[in-house]
Amino acid sequence: MIISLPSLYSSSGSSPESLGSSPKVGSSIKKVNIKNSKVLPHRYPWAECGPSPWPACVSIMLVSLFIHMAFGFNCMVSKAELWGGTLLMLISLVMILWAWWESLNLECLVGMMTGPELKNLKTAFFLFLWTEIFFFVGLFWAFFHSALVPSDELGCMWPPIVGIMPLDPFALPLVGVIILISSGYSANRAVKHVKGRYPEWRAMGTTVFLGVLFTCLQLYEYKSAGFTMQDGIYGSCFFVITGFHGLHVIGGTMFNTYCLALMLKGDYTPSQMLSLRCAVWYWHFVDIVWIVAYLTVYVWGNWGMYITPKQVWDKKMSIYEGWPSKEDIFHFIFI
Amino acid sequence: MSVNHKDIGTIYLYMGFWSGLIGLSLSHCMRVELNHPGEWLLGGYTYHSIMSMHAFMMIFFFVMPTSIGGLGNWFIPLMLKTKDLAMPRLNNLSVWLQLGSLFLMMMAFMSSGGLGCGWTMYPPLSSIEFMDGIPVDLAVFSLHMAGMSSIAGSINFLVTIFNMRLGALFFMHLNPMLIWTLFGTSILLVTSVPVLAAGLTLLILDRHFSTSFYYPEGGGDPILWQHLFWFFGHPEVYILILPAFGVISHILSRSSAKIHVFGKIGMSWASMGIAWMGFLVWGHHMFVAGLDIDTRAYFTAATLMIAVPTGVKVFNWIATIYGGMYRLKATHPSTFWALGFVLLFTVGGLTGVILANAALSTLLHDSYYVVAHFHYVLSMGAVFAIFGGFWFWFPFWTGMVPRKDLVLTHFCLTFIGVNCTFFPMHWLGLTGMPRRYQDYPEMHTAWQAIASAGGYCSFLAMGMFFATIWEVFLVERPLIFPFFVRSESEYYGTGAGEGNTVLPCGSHTNGQLPKFVIFKHKEKKPYYCTVIM
Predict the structure, then answer these.
(1) Spans of all domains in chain B
(2) Residues 149-168 of B with CB under 8 A from A
(3) Residue-wise pLDDT tens digits, B54-66
C-alpha cells in the first residue's frame, strides 16, 4: 500500500542504518527498508512516535459534539440539525480515528511493532475491556436495583403488573444467543487460520455475517416489541442494556470487517496479528455481555410472565386425553 | 501535540494550577458571602452554582490533573527508568480531553445562571423539571470527557507499570512509593469511572429521552443515582489522596535522610488495601438515604476498617521522621508541607472515623462537620502534598531554587488560613449548621466570621505563592548541590551513568535501556543491579 501521508518523524531523508540489536532485546524487529524513514532506535524495544495532531483533533471534535448535543437535546436547534449534525460529527470523529489508526499501520510497516510493544498494546486492550465491563456493570446495576425489589408503582412485580408485554426469551432472543455463540466459535477459528498461515477467510466472513444478522434480528425485535424505552423503568432498562449492547455489536462488527479486509489483503502474519486478536477478544466480550443480558433481563426478568416450554408440552400432550401422561410413563418404567 | 511525557506533565501542572486558582476564587466568593448571616451578596441560585463549580474545579481540574496527570506523567517513566510512557500519543489524548472537559465545564458554569445542583448532581434536582437548560448537560458531558481522559491516562500508567519496569525486575521491588500509589490510583480509576459514565448516561436519558431511571413514577429510584455516583465517588476521593500519600513518603524519607520510607512493603500493601477496600464502602455517603439498618451496619464496619491501613501509613511516616535531624534552618521547605500533611490529614482522618458511624452520621450528614472533614483531608491533605511535591521537585524540573523565606511565608499563611477556615466548621457542624446553605442563624456568626477570616488569609497566601514563583523565575537562582540523598532506586536517571548529575531534568532521558548486571555468589540467591550504559 502506498503511503502518502507526510512523515511524522524526522524530516531528514536519511536511509536506515543497520538495525544492530542485542540478542535479548529487540530481536524481533523486522528489518524494513523504506525510503525517507527514520532509523529505529534499537536499544528501546517499544514504539516511539513523534508529535501527532490526532489527539487534539479528537478532543476538539468531542467538545463540538458534546456542545452540539447539549444544545440539541434542550431543543435549541431543530431535530434535523441535531441528528444530522451529530451524524456528521460522528463521521468526522471516525475519520480522525481512522487517520490515527493509519499512523499505527505506518509504525507497523517500519517495524516498530516489536514483541514488547505488542505486549503493551495487548495489556492496554485488556484494560480497555475492563472499563467496558464496568460500564455494563453500571447498567446492570440499574436493572437489578429496579428488578430485585420492584417498586410499588410497578405493582411490586417484575415485569410490571400492567403495561408491558414481555418478550419471550425462548424465541428471537435465544436465536440471538445461538448466533453470537456461533460467531464466537468462527472468530476463534479465524484466529487459528491466521496463526497456522491458512489462506482461509471464510471463518472471519462468517463472524461478520453473523454479527450483521444479529443486528438485523435485534432491529426487528425492537420494531416488534410491545413497549418502548419510555415505558417506565422496565422499558428503560431493557432498551438501555440491549441498546448499548447493540452499539457494541455494531462497533465490534466494524472492527471485524476491518480485520477481514486486512486478512483478504494478506496483511496478517502469525507474529503481526494483534488487531485481529483484539477484534476477536472484543467480540467474545460482546458475546458474553449478551449472554449475561439474556439470562438476567430476558430469562430471569421475565420469569413466569411468558409461556414456558413446560406449558407448551402440556398443551401438546393434552390432546391425548391423559394417556400416556408423564406419570403413566414413570409408573410403567419404575414401578 | 507533544507526546513527550515531561511536556504533557507540565501542561497538566499548568492546567491544574490555573483551575486551582479558579476553585480558590470561587471558595473566596463563598466565604465572603458567608461572612454575614443573611443573603446579602449573592442570590441563592448563584451561591449554589459557585459552590458546585468550586467542587468540580478543585476535584476534577485541580487535584486530579496536578497529582495524577502532572506527577504521574513526570515521574512514572523516570522512576521506572524508561524513556516514556507506554503509549505517548494516548497520553497526549488524555491531556487534550482534559482541556476539552475543562472548556465544557466552564461553559456549563457560564451559561443560564450556572450549575446549581451540587457536584453530586442528585436527581430530581438535576432532572429536567428542576434544572432544564444546558448547564447540567454540559457538566455531564464534561465529566464524560474527563472520565475518558482519566481512563486513557490510567490505562497508560498501568501498561507502563506492568510491562516497562526496568528499574526493578520483580513487581514487589517497585520501590518508589509514588509508583505504588499511582498504580493503586490507576486501578481505582479504570474500575470506577465507567460506572460513573453509566450513571451519567442514564441521567442524560432521563433528562431528554423520557426514561424513568430516577423517577419513582415510572418505577425508578433516585437512590439508584446515589449508588452509581458514590460507587465512583468513594474511589474518587481515594484517587485524590493516594498520589498525595506517595509524595509524602518521598518527601519525608528524603528529609529524614533515609533511603526509603519506613516499612516500605507495609506501605505498599497499605496503599493497595486502601485502594481495594475503597470499592466496598460507598454507602457511607448514603446513611440518611433510607438504607436498611443492616446495610448501614455493614458500611459502618467496612469504613472503620479502612482506617486501619491508613493508620499504618501515618505511623510509618512518623517512624520515618523518627531518627531524622530536623533543624529549622536546614529544613527543605517541602518538609513543612509534608509534616503539615501528616498532622492535618490525621485530624481529618479522625473526623472521618467519627462520620463513619451510621448513627452519628444521621445527625452529622450534610452538616458542616462533613465539610470540615473532607476539607481537612483534601484542602490540607491533597493540597499540602501538591504544594510540597511542587517545591520538592521544582529544582528538578527547572534547575532553580526559590527563596526559602518566601516559600515558608506562603506555607505559614496557608497553614493559618486553612486551619482558621476549616477548624471552626467542626463546631458549626456539631451545632447544626447545614451544608450548602447560604444563610444561617445568627448563633453561627462568630465561627463563620472566623472561617471567612481564614479565607482572606488563604487569599494572601496565594498572593505570596505568586510572589514566590515570580521571584524564582526572575532571579533564576541555580541549584548547585542537590539536597537529595541518593536512594535505593530513585535515581531518576537523567544522565548517562549516574543519577541526576545535572539539573534541570533534560527533555529526553533514559534513551537507552539499562544493561542488567547480575551478581551471583555461589550459594546465595543472585541479586540484581541495573547499570545505565
Answers:
(1) 337-488
(2) 151, 154-156, 158-159, 162-164
(3) 999 999 999 999 9
